[in-house]
Design goal:
With 359 residues, this protein is mainly β. It has helices at 97-100, 192-197, 304-308; strands at residues 2-7, 10-15, 42-45, 48-52, 58-62, 78-83, 89-95, 107-116, 123-128, 132-138, 147-154, 164-170, 174-185, 218-223, 227-229, 235-236, 239-245, 256-257, 262-275, 279-287, 296-301, 314-324, 329-336, 343-358. β1 (2-7) and β2 (10-15) form a beta hairpin.
Length: 359
Amino acid sequence: MTGRAYMADHEVQLPLINYALNPSFEDGDPPGLNPVPTAVWTPYTRNWMAYKNAAGDTVSLNPTGALPDAEYGGIRAAQMGKVGTNGPAYLVQALPGRISRRFVNRQFTMSVRVACNAVGIAQLAYYDVANGWRYSGTNVLGTTTYETLSVTVPAGGHSGGNTMLLGVAMPGTGTAYVDSVSLVDGFLPPTAQQYSCAPAMAGAGYYDSFQAQLDPKCVKSLGGSSVTVPYNTTTIIPFSYNEVDTDQMGTVNNRITIRTDGKYHLVWQLNSTGISAAGDWFCMMTRSGGAVPFRGGTYTQPTPAAYHNGPAFVAIRESIVEDLIAGDYLETYAVVSSGGGSLTITSDYSYMAAFRMGD
């Protein structure tokens, strides 16, 4: 998203970043949480957790996917149901200490999009170690139409590994759909266009910093299924849906197709469970079927036994800036280049993205 500054007689737009992590539940697809335990912070999906304050209330979280915030580009939403008014229930994400320590005494606007079946049952909730909980007003719509809840406050003090918490509190009885949380510098919540182009891929999240600046034409395509890459066989990686797409560039035949000439920041990441024998694997992006890739990354895997004593997944991420013209298309490939084994690329955390920087 963008902010505005004035220098001499010229208006300049400055890039801002949404510091929230996994803001629209795009990273992970939980089976639900029913019921939410009392007085226990319980993980829900990556970077999100739930809490119920009072034993006399019943709180449930249904799987993400129902009623996403389409205006803001959402593909998933959390459905939170609560019966009882004995105390608030929370669905929040925690910004870990390595991020939140940067924010002390800076002014931020926190926002979240909600759609509720009754008026006055949900509010934005924000916590830091210096000030405790702070809240927005409650929702004013009682329909399936999304609305924005926001507060603008200075971030409080930070100590040790303490986190900042940001999300939704439900003091009342009803059902709330939650999507598109944001934490940005300044005094205004993001618009739909700004949010869609800057969906929290910054900080210590699992995505690159990928944001709209002067020209909000961008696309991010996610993997739809895992794929096996045989040894010494260059294999195209399938991408089946778009998390963000503001210029109709999105995935068709596993491609991003450029619609507007310009200079683009290209980012691609492939996530693997490893190859079946010690060796190297390589990922690359090509333009319009070209034989020479823009650039690629290589990972050297030790023996399978040594590998499985280490991380469960290995990802290669690359980026480059290129001049592209309308009609160019981008594809992502993987190949096992040594060792003789096969490779599995997972749909989780694999993506390709293109962001237009200008002419």
